Amino acid sequence: MNRETINEFLRQSMPSAADMEITCTEVDANGAVVHWEYGPRWLRPGNYISGPLLMAMADTALYCAVFGHLGRIEPMAVTSELATHFLRPAVDSGVTATAALLEVTGRRAYGEVRMVLDTDGVLVAHATGTYILPK
In this structure, which long-range contacts are made by residues 36-41, counting pairs with CB atoms below 8 Å and at least 24 apart in sequence? Predict the structure, then answer.
């Protein structure tokens, strides 16, 4: 599994990720990294990066991590739970989200995502989530 394959899948099958300009930059059997390049489209007043964008990044990073673990695209892997904690304002920077799978058992994959600003590497949000894998 590689990032090019994942990004093509996201462009073709998940236009919302493409619209948000979220791209997979790294993937392996243990996790994935996605990136969002700073721009005005997803900002809220005060140049704050919107919470929904950060939540979408976390969800997308976990989705990509599942693909990396499985070694294939599995379109019907679905989010069953996602908890996001906003730790400080995300302002004036691109964001990198790094997902690590902590446990994969049978039909369930559980992981965490750390979202940091590209400018200074400061942690702005942390998420945990569970994906259900198809039979």
Answer: 36/94, 36/95, 36/97, 37/94, 38/92, 38/93, 38/94, 38/95, 38/118
